[in-house]
Amino acid sequence: MLSRTAGSLCKPCLRLSLINRANLASKTPVRPVAVARAVTAEPFMNGSSSNYIEQMYESWRADPNSVHRSWDAYFRNVEAGAAPGQAYQAPPTLVPSAQSFAMQPVPQARPAAPVASEDVHRAIQDHLKIQLLIRSYQTRGHNIADLDPLGINSADLDDTIPRELELDFYGFTEKDLDREFLLPPTTFIGGDRTHMTLREIVARLKSIYCNHTGVEYMHLTNFEQQEWIRKNFEAPRVTELTHAQKKVLFKRLIRSTKFEEFLAKKWPSEKRFGLEGCEVLIPAIKQVIDRSSTLGVDSIVIGMPHRGRLNVLANVCRQPLETILSQFSTLEPDDEGSGDVKYHLGVCVERFNRQSQRNLKIAVVANPSHLEAVDPVVQGKVRAESFYSDDPKCDRHLAIMLHGDAAFSGQGVVMETFNLDDLPSYSIYGSIHMVANNQIGFTTDPRFSRSSPYCTDVGRVVGCPIFHVNVDDPDAVMHVCNVAADWRKTFKKDVIVDLVCYRRHGHNELDEPMFTQPLMYQRIKQTKPILELYQKRILSEGVADEAYVTEELTKYGQILEDAYESAQKVTCVRNRDWLDSPWDDFFRGKDPQRLLPTGIDRANIEQFVEKFSSVPEGFNLHRGLERTLKGRKQMMEENSLDWAIGEGLAFGSLLKEGIHIRLSGQDVERGTFSHRHHVLHDQKIDQKIYNPLNDLSENQAVYTVCNSSLSEYAVLGFELGYSMVNPNSLVIWEAQFGDFSNTAQCIIDQFISSGQSKWIRQTNLCMLLPHGYEGMGPEHSSARPERFLQMCNEDDEIDLDKVTLGPAFEAQQLHDTNWIVANCTTPASFFHLLRRQVLLPFRKPAVLMTPKSLLRHPLARSPIEDFLPETRFQRVIFENGKAAQNPSGVERLVFCTGKVYFDLVAARKQLGLEEKVALARVEQIAPFPYDMIKDEYEKYRQAETIWAQEEHKNMGAWGFIQPRFNSLLKRENKGIKYAGRKPSASPATGNKYTHINEQKQVIADVFGVSKTSL
C-alpha cells in the first residue's frame, strides 16, 4: 500500500480494500457488486455505487473531515500500511456510544489500537437505514401527502401509513432524533450540508414528499431522470415564489373565479360546466404556457373536456368575452354549420405572451362529450404542425391535455394514445397532462370506478413522472407546473400534473350532488374558495395590501360588465369564430362549382411505373418481390394496370405536384394482403429500406407511410388531427380489415361524419376499409357500409324537375354532403377518387370500401387510357358489353357495387345471358348519383330493375339506395327489387360451404335461375 505522502491508493487497491472490509463485516465472501450495494444501499447501476465510494475517497484526500469518521479512520489505516483485514478494524477515534455518528475532530496522530469492529458495523448499518428511509420517502411519500383540499379522502384510496415511512421500522427511537447522519449522494435535502440530524432529515422529507405535493417518480427506469426530479423538488427553497409571481397568480385566480361567478349570476339556469373547486386550473395552464413559451414553444394545442372550457377560452386563449357571452343567447347563425353547445367549442388565436415577451399561437380543439376522444386528435394536430414547420423534435410545438379523473383512468383511448408516445411516426416528444381530479365521476365514487390507487396510474406504464398537488396550495401548483414544463423540454417525454380538487356544484350547475355524495358536499359547503384563501395569504405575507386587492377585483368586474353590455348588441352567431384550424387562404379564389379533371399524362405514368418497379443498385431485394416488381413492368407493357399500380400512380402524381401524403394504419407499408410494398427491406442489412415514392424527383413532397400500433381508435383520431392542419395534403388511414373500424366508431361518429356541421371543420381524410364476402367469416368480410351510409346527410327524395343535372349537380352534391362513401371496382376509379380528394375546391372525408381478392383479379385492371388527362372519376360505370349494343333486348338491369360485380359477370357469361342482362356498377354510393342512374335506367326503360349485393338485406347499401331508386322511378310507377342474402344478425358465415351456397343463391336470384344451374 502506498502512504498518503507517497501519493494515493490506486483505484484497484481501493476496491480490493473495500471488498475485504465487507468480507470481514459479513464473515462470508462478498462479491464487488454486493459490496457496493451493502455500502450504499442503492441499486448498482452504471457503476454509480463504486463511483460514490471513489468520490468519497477523493473527497477524504482533499479534506478528512468531509467524510464520516469511520471512513476517515479506515482510509488512514489503509494508507498507513495496514493490511485490508487490519484496516477494517475501527480506529479509536470512533466512540462507541449513542453519539457515535456525531462529527468530532479527528486527531492527526497515527492510528492507535483498534476498537471493537461491531461498533463500526453498527455505524454502517445505521448509515444504510438512513439511505433506505430517504429512499422510502422518495418512493412512498406521496401515499401520505396532504392532497385532498376537503381533508376527507386519500388520493390513493388508502388511509394506511406505509410501514417503511415509520422510524421504528428501522429500529430508530426518540433518542436517535438528534443524532447526526451522513446524507447519501442520492438526495438533495441538505443543500450544501453533508450531514443532518435524524429530526431534520424526517422533517425535510415530510415537507417535500408528504405536504401538499406528492411526487411519483421512482418507477422511472432512468437514473438521470430520477436525479433531475430530486433536484427540482428536494433542493431547499426551490418551491418559493417571489412577491411579483404571487401577484400574477392572484390576478389569474381573480379571473378564473370571478368569470364563473359572473356566469352563475347572469345565467343561473344554464349549464356551463364551471371550474368551481378547481379554479387554480387557469393559473396552472397559464404557468405551463408561460414557462414553455420561455423555453422556445410558439404553438400550443389544448385538448380538454367540457369542464372549465369557457373559462379556458376566456382567460387562457383570451377569446373576446362578448363572443363567449353571446353563446348564452338564442341567436341565428349567420354562416354555415349547425353549431354545438358552447362547452364543446374550440378556437384558434394568436396572442402576445407578456411573461416570455414572445408571440404564441394557442388552439383549443373542439370536441364532443366523449371526454378522452380528443387526446389522439390533439396529438395528430401537433405532429402535423411540427412537420409543416420543420420542427422534427417538437421544440416549438406542445400539446397540453386536460383530463377528468374518472375518464383518465376509465377510458381505453388514454392508454392507446400513450402508446403512441415513442413511435417514430407518431411521437410529439412529450405532452403535458393536467388532471382536474374531482375525486368523483358523475355520481360514482372513485372506489367503484377504478382499480388502481390513483387515477393517473396509466402514466406509470410509459414512464411518466406524476405530480399530485393540492389545489388549495396555489404556490405548490405553480411549482409543479414549472417542473412539468422543464421536464418536457429536457427529456421530451410526457408528464402528468394531478390537480386534486373537488366540484362545488356537482356534475353541472343544475345537478343535485347531495343525492349520492351527502358527506362530501356537506364538507364542500364549509370549504372556502381558493381565491378567498389566497387573498388572506398574500395580505398576511405582505405581498399586497387591501387597496391592491380591491383594485384588481373591481377592474376585472368592470371588464365582465362591459363585455356583457357588448354581448347584448350581438345579433347573430358566427360559427367561424370557433374554428380551431382556420384555412382562410385555401378557400380564397376557388369556385366550389368547378370540378377539375383528375387524369395525368402518359410520361408521368411511365416514370412512376418505372420507379415503382425498380430498386437502387446494390439493394438486396427479396426474391419474391423481384417477381412482383417485374410483374409491374409487364403490366405496363400489356396496358393492364392493377390496383397497386393505380394507387401508386395517384400517390406519385400528387407527391410530384407538392402534395404531402401520409398513409397510416396496421401493416400498411406492405399492405395486409401483400399488394402494396411501398417500403422495401434489404434482405441482408437490418433496417435498410427503400421507398420508391420518396425517390421521384428532388422537388417532390414527402410521402410518409407508417405501420401503426395495433389501435384503431387512437390512430384514426391521430390521423384526423393530422389532416386538420393543412388542406393541401392527403391523409389516409387504412384498417387491417374494414370490420375493425368499429373500434374507432367514436372518432367516426363524433368527429368525422359531423365535424363540419358542428364545428365547420373540413378534412379530406380518407378511410380505406377492406370489404368483400369471400368466405372469411364474420370478422373479415364487412366494413359495415350500412353504418356510414346511414350517417349521410343526403335526403332520399329528389324532384328531378327542379334539379339541373350535369357537372354542376355533381359539384353541388359534393359540396353539400358530410362525406363520400364509395366502393370502387377498378384501379382507375380508385386513382381518380384519391386525386379528386385533393383537387376538389373544398374538403370532404371519404369512406372507401377497398378490395381484397380484387387486388389481383385479372378483370380488376385498367388500361393506361383511363388515367390520361381529361379523364375523371366515374360515379357509375355503365354496361358496355353486348347488352349495351341492343338495349331493347335487355330484360334485367342490375345495379351493384363492389366485388359482387365480377361474380355476376362470370355467372352471366356461364348462363349465356350477356345480351339479356345489363350490369351497372355504382362506384360512388353517396352522394347518390341520381343523374347517372337516371341516364342508365332510361337506356333500359323496359327492363326490370334489380339491386344486387352480397351483404345481408339489413346490411350493405340496400337500405340507403332503395328509397333513392324509388324516388327516381316513382314517375314510372316502378321500383327496384332486391337480390342478396336474407337479413342476419352476423355479417357473414364462418363456414366455407355455407358461404358458397349463399353466394350461389344471391347469383341465382339476380338472374332468375335455379341455384342448381350454377
UniProtKB/TrEMBL annotation:
Enzyme Commission number(s) of this protein: 1.2.4.2
One example of a Gene Ontology biological process annotation: tricarboxylic acid cycle
Known cofactor(s): Mg(2+); thiamine diphosphate
Swiss-Prot/TrEMBL catalytic activity: N(6)-[(R)-lipoyl]-L-lysyl-[protein] + 2-oxoglutarate + H(+) = N(6)-[(R)-S(8)-succinyldihydrolipoyl]-L-lysyl-[protein] + CO2
Every Transketolase-like pyrimidine-binding domain range: 641-857
Pfam families in UniProt: 2-oxogl_dehyd_N (PF16078), E1_dh (PF00676), OxoGdeHyase_C (PF16870), Transket_pyr (PF02779)
Protein family membership: Belongs to the alpha-ketoglutarate dehydrogenase family.
NCBIfam families, per database record: 2oxo_dh_E1 (TIGR00239), PRK09404.1 (NF006914)
Name the record gives this protein: 2-oxoglutarate dehydrogenase, mitochondrial
Species of provenance: Acrobeloides nanus
